[in-house]
Amino acid sequence: CPIETPEGPNIGLIGSLATYARVNDFGFIETPYRKVENGKVTDEVDYLTADEEDLYVIAQA
Q: Which range marks the domain in which residue 37 is found?
């Protein structure tokens, strides 16, 4: 796991986020997002850094 998780009530949430994340060549954490086209979720997964996330509308499924 590339991220140290704190102890306490948020440990499960932070632990699950770290499960699917990856670290790119520059050392930044990338998070996977499934793409939505024409109102439907596709099987395509894009990994985005925090800077790239600002360029998109990200909704909870």
A: 11-53
Examine residue 45 and state whether it is found in any structural domain, yes or no.
yes
**Residue 33 and residue 43 in contact, taking contact as beta carbons nearer than 8 Å:** no
Look at the pTM and tell me if it is higher than 0.85.
no
Closest CA to 27 of 53, 49, 5, 52: 49
pLDDT in tens, 5-24: 566 666 665 565 578 889 99
| Residue 29 neighbours by CB under 8 Å, 6+ apart | 2, 3, 21, 22, 23, 49, 50
Task: Tell whether 1 is covered by a domain.
Answer: no
Domain count, the chain: 1
Q: Which two tokens stand for residue 13?
A: 């949430």
